[in-house]
Amino acid sequence: MRDPLSVLTDAFTSFLFGKVETTRLPVRTSTGQAQAVYLPTAAPGLGDSGVIIGREVYSGKGYVYDPFQLYGQQLPAPHWLVLGESGNGKSALEKTYVLRQLRFRDRQVVVLDAQGEDGVGEWNLIAQELGITPIRLDPTAALDHGIRLNPLDPSITTTGQLALLRTIIEVAMGHGLDERSGFALKVAHAYVNETIVERQPVLSDIVEQLRHPEPESAEAMNVAIDDVRAWGLDVALVLDRLVDGDLRGMFDGPTTVGIDLDAPLTVFDLSHIDRNSIAMPILMAIVGVWLEHTWIRPDRKKRIFLVEEAWHIINSPFVAQLFQRLLKFGRRLGLSFVAVVHHLSDVVDGAAAKEAAAILKMASTRTVYAQKADEARATGRVLGLPRWAVEIIPTLTPGIAVWDVNGNVQVVKHLITESERPLVFTDRAMTESSTDPADDALRAAELEAEERAAAFVEQHLGDSESTVA
To answer: Considering the entire predicted model, what is its pTM?
Structure first.
């Protein structure tokens, strides 16, 4: 019981000065309010099954991603687009991702390696480590019995062969075939397939028929033989480039015997092809269709098809149409297509904007490394990224990227183990030592922090059953 004098004093004080004692209300919040305040850390993860990529920057949690585990639940399609300027970590991400996927026994990977130095592709070190010889497509080497891929390989259906021939011609000409040229090509292709049975038909057979069509073909359409020959002349000139021009040797003979598509990793080394020439999209079209008919099979394996410099595919309406079919077809057979490009403007502002949009729509996973502010805003508009992610992209440092997995957006730090580092950093700029002691000290501190953070990656990979040596 309070002292009566204290009660009287309190009453007198309140009368003179008003109530001086306040009551603190309890703090209450809802889940929605917490997510609004702590947006970067509120999004749920992708689960703990699959390949570990690194850790989320804001929450520090491990970041695990696998399109085969997520497909059908969190992902409508298993395809993946990787964007960013050079030097920010795209290549390192691709290589560690493939190496970690290969630790699962049911994985197979094909890489189109379009970059390199010292006469070999970027994936050469990894191929050597795994005991694999890259399939090196080189016009010069092909003349001395190098690797050949035959667009008329019997393993490709006749319909697929004709579609591939049209694509090669349309890419080289820069426009679609008209009805007359298309008819001349169709007639020549049909005649070659019907009459040559003792060996594989080759492109030179098609060129010969275009130049000297059979009279029966003209009679069947009630046209003059000279008209049919004239209709096929431009087509013959384009194909002649693959037979006797600057691209000769790679596609003008039977497919090389012994190409092993059952290995865990297959690397097509395209680094000897001029990346800015018309040869590159033609080459990718031929390889893509050839793989569609020889590599993708209805078995239980999960396949990854990784394409560097993928703008050659996406930015050509004719090649993009072929790959659209491949992507749709591949979803039913466990195929994940990984397209690596530098700038989205490379593919959305070109002649193949419609086809590019269709392929981008199929890529439910998007990884964006550092870009300039204008490029980041354009990328954000096309991909539908949230504003906070767009604002972060120009500030990202190498190895850190914005990941958008079907609307689940995170900022992720890619972690590389010491065993992976010599294999994934093939650029001299990344491997040679700095001449500035201050830079060396800073890099040493960064490496020490990365090694501590990557410890759980090494442990995770050690627990996986490996299929590689």
So the answer is: 0.77
